[in-house]
Amino acid sequence: ERCHADGAQSARYRPGRDEHVLTAGRDAVVKLWDLRSLAAPLATFSGHHAAGARRRALMHPCWLDASTFAVGGEGTARLAVYDVASGRQTASLQIGSDCTALADVRASGAAAARLAVATEASGEVTLHERPDQA
Fold first, then answer.
1. Most buried among 20, 75, 78, 120, by the most CB within 10 A?
2. Which class for 111: exposed (0-12), middle (13-18), buried (19 or more C-beta within 10 A)?
3. Under a CB-based contact definition with an 8 Å cutoff, are residues 12 and 63 in contact?
């Protein structure tokens, strides 16, 4: 099976599971793959974009832990958090502009983990409370 209809934009190894890779592309889905058997993805995650959205790429998923990831996409101005076990979106965060990159930030002594988000419009990096822990 082809990884993504219009090609993959990025890939991230799963924490503690080097055989698992999360990929995102221009087809509005994120896929979890087992590198030992690439015939089909282990799971496919969708629903981040509104039906009929013109721009649909999902950018750079970020693992928050071994079972949860966040992803931003074109035309959404928000981040979505997905639970791998259930396959469901569990949280969402409006960020005001399309996310082009994100990273989980765990400062020592911080009360909650944060996400560093780079946005398309400003090119700035901002810190946000993780929506799954807000």
1. 20
2. exposed
3. yes
Please give the distance of CA 26 from its chain centroid, rounded to a whole number. 13
Q: CA-CA distance, 100 to 103, in Å (whole number)?
A: 11
What confidence tens digit (pLDDT) does each residue in 73-122 have? 777 777 888 999 999 988 888 887 777 777 787 755 555 677 777 776 67
Nearest of 9, 30, 4, 99 to residue 131 by alpha carbon: 99
Start-to-end CA distance of the chain, whole Å, equals: 37
Please state the φ and ψ torsions of residue 23, each to the nearest 5 degrees: -125, 150
